[in-house]
Specification:
The chain is an alpha+beta fold. The protein contains 3 helices and 4 strands; from the N terminus they run H-H-E-E-H-E-E.
């Protein structure tokens, strides 16, 4: 997925453990934009070294809210927002009723058990 490669090249100051969480959250948000909208309209990331956080935003063309649901063992899908909820320190939605779109955002912090301190700013 191109967004994963872009994020990996851009977030050079983020340690591998934290980057893995960021990439997973980003992948899930972008996948939801494809599954429930017409694909992502825009993907944005910002990095803050103190406290170490990556803020991810994905715009899509659907006002339907993401749902945390209990996935069925016999049905594919339905696990994405559960992963986002587990990996992100916080997440939410901003509706843009005037355009019929929304932004789903997530903040991923470097406070996991195996995370290392972030080193510098984004290139």
């Amino acid at each position: 997925m191109q967004v994963r490669r872009w994020a990996s090249r851009t977030l050079t100051a983020v340690d591998d453990a934290h980057l893995g969480d960021v990439l997973m959250v980003t992948t899930e948000l972008v996948t939801n934009a494809y599954d429930h909208g017409q694909g992502p309209l825009e993907v944005r990331m910002s990095y803050t070294p103190v406290p170490c956080r990556v803020h991810v935003e994905v715009d899509d063309s659907c006002l339907d809210q993401p749902v945390l649901s209990r996935p069925s063992p016999t049905t594919p899908g339905g696990r994405g927002m559960l992963l986002v909820d587990k990996l992100a320190a916080a997440w939410g939605v901003r509706e843009h009723r005037e355009t019929g779109s929304k932004t789903v955002w997530a903040d991923v912090a470097c406070d996991g058990a195996d995370a290392e301190r972030c080193t510098s700013t984004v290139d």
